[in-house]
Specification:
Elements lengths: L2 H37 L1
Keywords: Coiled coil
Length: 40
């Protein structure tokens, strides 16, 4: 692999991690909203 391919693979992995992170944030926000509704 040349440097460009390596960089593209790293970017791909980074984007996958970002997707996972965003899913976790969404799950967290959903839980917070559910708790907020229970408190109301």
């Amino acid at each position: 692999m040349d440097e460009r391919e390596i960089r593209n693979e790293e970017i791909k992995k980074y984007n996958e991690l970002l997707d996972e992170y965003n899913e976790l944030i969404d799950d967290y926000n959903q839980l917070v909203n559910e708790l907020d509704e229970e408190i109301d």
